[in-house]
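Hello support,

Our group uses your service weekly, and this is the first time we've seen a run hang past the timeout. The protein is Oxygen sensor histidine kinase NreB. I'm not sure whether the cause is the sequence or the server load. Input pasted verbatim:
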Amino acid sequence: MTREPDAWRWGVGRWEAYFALVLVSTVIYVLAGGEAWQRDAVAAVLLVALAPWYLLLGRRSADRAAPPPATLGYLAGAVVLSGAAAIAAPESSLVLFALCPQAFMMLAWRGAMLTVLALNATPALRFLWESTTVGAVVSFSLWAAVTMGFSAFFGFWVDRIIRQSRERAELIAELRATQAELAAANRRAGAMAERERLAAEIHDTLAQGFTSILMLLQAADSHLDQDPEQARRQISLAAGTARENLAEARALVAALPPAGLESSSLEEALQRLAERFGEEMGIPVEFTTSGPPRRLAAGVEVVLLRAAQEATANIRKHAGAGHVSVRLAYGGDTAVLEVRDDGAGFDPDAAAEAGRGFGLRGMRERVTQVGGRLEVGSAPGEGTVLTVEVPA
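Update from on-call engineer: The timeout came from a worker crash unrelated to the input. Re-ran successfully.
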């Protein structure tokens, strides 16, 4: 993000141009008087001295960035130089049109008003000293009152602008810092979410596939001597599962849809899952559908397939079931997946309290993310029914 320059600091350059114009005009006006050239020359030298004095101390004070001693030193020097010039040549007071605004740029309102009084004190005293009529004194007093009133109003306005500019600059800096912190937090949250997604994907695909391969190879090993044909069949199933695991790994690395859904429908993927699971376990596995089949959102189909994979993996590891049924039902606004087994069952509340079941927690999170709901009905010795309902 490109940082824009502070508006007040950007405007200081214009105030410097104004100061230079007033200073040059005053010097020319003083030298053009011609009545007492020695005094005019002294006044001009004093006025010209204001330029290096400003560059030395005043420039850093113009946006209130200089330390207070430097600011007070510059203004004290300006009061002395302009006052001495006014004593030498009254026309020098014209430079106060630039010096008075500087006081408000560099100091808070009360300090600036005192500085303005100090800047005008010498020209005022000289005028009063040289005045010989009451009318002139009254006229000068009225003019001084109007001038000071205007200075007070103008100074208060300038002070407010400077304060608001600094406050807004601080607020913008805080907002930028907050934005940077939020961006970092979002990156960390995104990385954490991606790690959780990968963990769930690995658990639902690769880990389950490796578990299936291991069980098939162990079963094949036990049949090598007594039933070589059965052993070869189980090794063939293990090889098929390995190929599917490899396809899942490639899809995971390439962020593609699950291999089961890449070139087929959800019904076909669930049908293959049920058939392969039945062959691996040597039990009847029934797959049925109801309602008019239709394609669901890609994310919803992935959730249903992963839920079926997790359910069958849990049956393989824990249930000891003799029969499994997988049912996919299409309704008007929802699609429902049901996986039922007649195995050992378990107590869902006790399992939740014990903190077991990473797969079930991950499945519930997946279903929630697509706006669905998951229910697990089970009891010891009564089998398990897993139901997933998602928007269609």
